[in-house]
Amino acid sequence: MAYLIRFAGLTGRKFLAYADYILSLSGLLYRILKIFVTGNYKGKKLVWVGIIEQVYFTAVQALWIIIPIAFMIGTAFFLQFSQLAAKYDFGKLAVVALMRETGPMVAAIVVILRSATAVTVEIGYMNVRNEMDAVRMAGADPVALICIPRLAGISAAVLCLFIVFNIVAVLGGYIGAWALSDISLVRFLAMIGKAVSVNDILAVVVKALSFGAIISVVCMYRGFAAKKTITLVPVMVSRASVECFFFCLFVNILISVMFSISG
Amino acid sequence: MTQTVYELKDTCFFNDDYSLPCFSLSINQGDVCKIVSDNDISAEFFLRGLATLINVRGHLFFNGNEYDPLEYKELIWLKRKFAYLGPMCSLLSNRNILDNIFLFKLWEENKIRITPDDDFMAEWKRIGKKEDLYKRPEHVTEDIVGAAYILKEFLKYPEIVMLERPYLFTKGRLGGLLFEKIEEVFKTRIPVVFYSTTDFIPESRITHYIEINEDEIIKKAR
User: Could you tell me if A133 lies within 8 Å of chain B, comparing CB atoms?
Assistant: First the structure.
């Protein structure tokens, strides 16, 4: 009995702590979005430069990773599923499995591995080194100067990487496997074009924006949570990466279910 | 008649694991207040609270206008009016020295680049090379970083100067810079609040003491 009570208590405490964490993340996201949308800050040009830099770091510098990965996954997919082309709607299969499900998750994993860790370390060190105070003492708003570029930049970068992944996976996959397949490129593209619906495009955009928001907000929150303790920075990096992956996976399924139900 | 610049009524400074007793005091034009405390942590905490760098509860008045300490945007505007120098101060490591010095200007005037004027360049020549301005803090000497921080704070035309262990900024080749800036501050009667374990500011210049005890914080005339 005592064991059961302890177990129930532990579960309750864990649940409350988790709920508190999710609410805190939502609060941070709301605060950043409110300032971004209302434009209630002065140094807009500095913020836009920050967004462009973030897109460069997260999307452009990740192209050399995402392109070969997309190529390999596209080839493997095409090789495996082209054999089923006669049995199933191959175009729809490519759109749903490759473009709507695999692409977003692969892009998210690349961003988590490359940028999420970097953002957490950067924010963590800025906090430890009192650089946030330097921003505030200059009369600048850290939420606008530091957080908006990460949120907007990473979200835009994830969307760009989704698009690149899908193009490379479809075309590159076809090129990689054309010798082993009897489907012509024109037929293949026609199948894909016929299968893509507005719903699919919407799903991809919603996933990109959600993943971008999740990755940036979790990393910033964990970076800020390092407070003034330098030894907490690696701990927070580890937590942020795992949480980003878990949340993205969960939201991916959630959005897929929502769009599947809506048709 | 001396004008009150900064007034705190029933104010408390606190964070997750430390707090000071609540107090009321005003800082007037021409005041030079030395913080007296047998506890370094309390003195530093008080100065950081004064600069609204930690949690503040109570009533804050600056130049007669009340500011809500829970409204962080109002506090950011207020911080712009303070010059705060302390051992914990640093520059942004992902921006060059010039951007760091003029961050307030870049932000307020909505610019992405600043062209320093001749007066600034003449002053900078005494500190370092022109190229140093375009380097990040980790690529220049500690002297230059310290000098850049002093310039950053004093170029804001602050209305109150807060110094925490200022002697740390007076070491090395550029040690005289802070003394020069403080002299200018005295001439313009901008109030100064400082904590120092050395006689950084001579006793004769001090007008008030702010005593921090276990259960109260009081301002006394010298």
Answer: yes
Interface contact flag, B89 A49, Cβ < 8 Å: no
Question: Which chain B residues in 99-138 lie under 8 Å from chain A, judged by CB atoms?
Answer: 100, 103-104, 106-108, 110-112
- Asked if B179 has any chain A CB less than 8 Å from its own CB, the reply is no
Which among A49, A130, A140 is the nearest to B112, CB-wise?
Answer: A49
Nearest to B155, CA basis, from B105, B95, B192: B105
Span B126-143, average pLDDT = 92
Buried b or exposed e, range B209-221, using 16+ CB within 10 angstroms: ebebeeeebebee
Q: Are B208 and B31 in contact (CB under 8 A)?
A: yes
Please write the tens of the pLDDT for every residue from A55-82. Answer: 999 999 999 999 999 999 888 888 777 7
* Residue B38 CB-half CA count within 13 A: 2
> What are the CA-CA distances from residue A133 to residues A128, A184, A228, B67 (Å)?
10, 61, 12, 19
Give B20-76 pLDDT, tens digit per residue: 999 999 999 999 999 998 888 899 999 999 999 999 999 999 999 999 998 888 899
Token pair, residue A202, equals 């919407």
Spell out the domain ranges in chain A.
43-262
pLDDT surpasses 80 at B203 = yes
| Beta carbons of B10 and B21 less than 8 angstroms apart | no
Say what the pTM is. 0.89
Nearest to B76 among A45, A129, A139 (CB): A139
A87 touches chain B (CB under 8 A): no
Report whether pLDDT(A44) > 90.
yes
